[in-house]
């Protein structure tokens, strides 16, 4: 019964549904279309008829087939019976719109299904990763312990709509559990713990680092909705450090719970090792470049901060001049009124210089939060990628190689025991049993190795998805610098007429100022001696 849609005009709603199901303009998957039809609340028998009407026996339908299915669904909801010529009456008319409820969950289902169908494609862009969650980490007032003061952090999750209090040791325990749960994923580093003499600057930098740590975890496609992450972001009880270890002690790692573990070998392309080496070189280059960009951006912050302090201090000195109460008589000034005019102008100028300081301070703050912090976030991600590669090489790959070597040793012993003219009773049987056990371990390690390689590919794609951070960095830098230069330039333009008015003589200096001789006789600046 399958046929193309040849009657009626397509309403905008149809195109909206197609864009939800197929954002990349591909064909509509059978499972996805069935999910869509089930939203119509039609009887199963009717849905089957609609599917038969558009099914081309390939497991998917094209755009035309989707539009036809939508039209038939709308008509079935209006009590029409599905048949071949049902749509012919809509020649030249707009096709009917079906009732499918809220399309928001359809979008979620569509995205999820596409990712499941393509396990070797991450399927997330940077904006979608950011939408998973946003974590705020704020300092709480210091509390005094028995011996030392300790710092608490207020951790707020947008996704879970929760705010909890955490100490540094809680983050440390959380990371430890993450490493056990997700050994083949990007687990960020934590900032160092400074036991003594932690100044305000150190505490603030650590707060920012903990915020980056939380956001990278909460925006990871495999971690953000895991029970471990949810527990850390929502548990409000006491003794978090011990509680999280107690609840998740013995938690199986991702390999043990993933439905991809058993078919991991099929997911690893033949050239994976070469691709990993290429990616490591690329990530190393990125890390070096991002580190230099971060250092330069930090210098921009320091220069803007220094400029702000200088302008503020300059203005304070002008303000001090304006408030000077020292007695200055005509004996000192002669006929000059310069100091009188300057004092009046200094008061206005001090305000303008304070404004310069404010603008520069704003530039420093914006650059730090929108440029430096985002570069630090990406730098943390690249460091986590390096750590992941090290774990793969020193961990599962090394374990696999040791297990194979151990198997070889058992086989040599079995061979020696077999050819021995008088082998000990049970020796060969024991070696056979050990070989079987070792073969099972090797098979498990091989699967782990392939799963680790698959995860490495996905984590590499995660780095590339986060590369869009650099778009934000460049855009924010351009906006911040343009705004700051414009506003500071405007203030300087406002300062110029104030300076011009300081002279108090219709904004003009005398063309040939007079000065006084040592004996008090006036002389012109052009004269060469005493008047005759």
From TrEMBL:
Pfam family, any one: EH
Record family assignment: Belongs to the sorting nexin family.
A single Gene Ontology CC term: early endosome membrane
Main location: membrane
Name the record gives this protein: Sorting nexin-8
Presence of keyword Protein transport: yes
PX domain boundaries: 131-239
Region feature (Disordered): 501-532
CDD domains: BAR_SNX8 (cd07597), PX_SNX8_Mvp1p_like (cd06866)
Localisation per UniProt entry: Membrane
Polar residues bias: start-end ranges: 509-525
Domain of life, source organism: Eukaryota
Membrane topology, record value: Peripheral membrane protein
GO biological process, any: early endosome to Golgi transport
Entry GO MF terms: phosphatidylinositol binding
Keywords attached to this entry: Membrane, Protein transport, Transport
Entry keyword annotation includes Oxidoreductase: no
